[in-house]
Design brief:
Strand content: 15-25%
Shape: globular
Oligomer: single chain
Structural class: alpha/beta
Order of helices and strands: EHEHEHEEHEHEHEHHEHHHHH
Largest sheet: 9 strands, mixed
Length: 317
């Protein structure tokens, strides 16, 4: 199976060399590495080009955008330019374990999967492992090495982080449509589309070290206080989930989902709309009631954080 790594870069001169090293030194070499630079204003382009020249990496390509596209379109366009059957997204500032490609390809072949994601931990700007909740939030609560992820599980836990993904390029058209038409990130639809098609799996192995620093394009919130101290972030997060739910309904509701999935999805949309209104209205009591109203596509812990965010907002006015 031909493998392409697709990296999006933007002002990444500080950390990009470490990530390039971790890709180059994989036990299973990528057949192609596509690096798409989104009009960096620092020396990222020079750093990457010098790296390619230094190691004689004839299968690595640097694409320089003529205009800034934003990281979502930059990743998607990079994937369109890739020639591999299997795509790995790569951020510019993380570090991969040297067996990431090998182990994820093996898992995908073993299960005949459409997409697989691995686990991650986090490192700081200095490259040292940090102590936070990211690993625990992402960890699969099972002893299985490889676990199939249902659509309900995928939507409930949002398990589709780009830095941890490997997916078949045949999904890209649907992923692109969902991402661009519904204002989603480049990676969120990958797990959704694969799960709808019955081919989404999780590899219970930590293969990515996600670097947290001051300039991440996107990063998980690593503390409870950090997650509840911004009501706007809670509202934006809920709005994103609502857009994903509506995309699933609009694109797959009549053609791919079971009657049970459609019923659960409809109730999840209704509840998410209600929670979003309660967040915008600072309705703590309404959110507290929502905590005790379950749905297989919704994570109760997030509703608890929504409630706490409103309480925090009220107490700091």
């Amino acid at each position: 199976m031909r493998i392409s790594v697709v990296m999006s870069t933007y002002n990444g001169e500080k950390y990009v060399t470490e990530q390039l090293d971790s890709i180059r030194l994989q036990t299973r070499k990528a057949d192609e590495v596509v690096i798409s630079d989104d009009c960096s204003k620092d020396t990222t382009i020079e750093v990457v080009q010098e790296y390619i020249n230094r190691y004689g990496l004839s299968t690595w390509r640097l694409i320089k955008n003529n205009e800034n596209k934003g990281f979502v379109r930059n990743f998607l366009d990079g994937a369109e330019n890739a020639t591999g059957e299997l795509i790995f997204f790569s951020d510019q500032d993380d570090i991969w374990s040297d067996t990431k490609i090998e182990h994820m390809e093996d898992a995908l072949k073993e299960k005949n999967a459409l997409a697989v994601y691995c686990l991650m931990d986090t490192i700081g700007a200095d490259g040292k492992q940090t102590t936070n909740q990211t690993y625990n939030m992402n960890k699969i609560k099972t002893k299985s090495r490889i676990q199939k992820i249902s659509l309900c599980e995928k939507v409930k836990y949002g398990r589709s982080p780009g830095l941890c993904l490997a997916f078949k390029k045949e999904l890209l058209k649907e992923v692109r449509t969902m991402a661009l038409e519904y204002g989603l990130s480049h990676d969120l639809p990958v797990g959704t589309v694969a799960a709808v098609r019955g081919g989404y799996y999780a590899l219970n192995e930590t293969l990515v070290h996600h670097r947290i620093h001051g300039n991440n394009a996107s990063s998980p919130e690593t503390s409870l206080l950090g997650s509840i101290s911004s009501l706007k972030k809670q509202i934006d997060s809920r709005d994103l989930r609502l857009r994903e739910l509506r995309a699933i309904r609009d694109i797959y509701g009549e053609t791919c989902l079971t009657a049970s999935e459609n019923r659960i999805l409809r109730k999840a949309i209704e509840k998410t709309e209600r929670i979003l209104n309660e967040l915008r209205e600072n309705n703590a009591l309404g959110l507290l009631k929502s905590v005790f109203s379950g749905n297989r596509m919704m994570d109760r812990r997030l509703t608890v954080r929504n409630f706490l965010a409103v309480i925090y907002e009220r107490s700091h006015k």
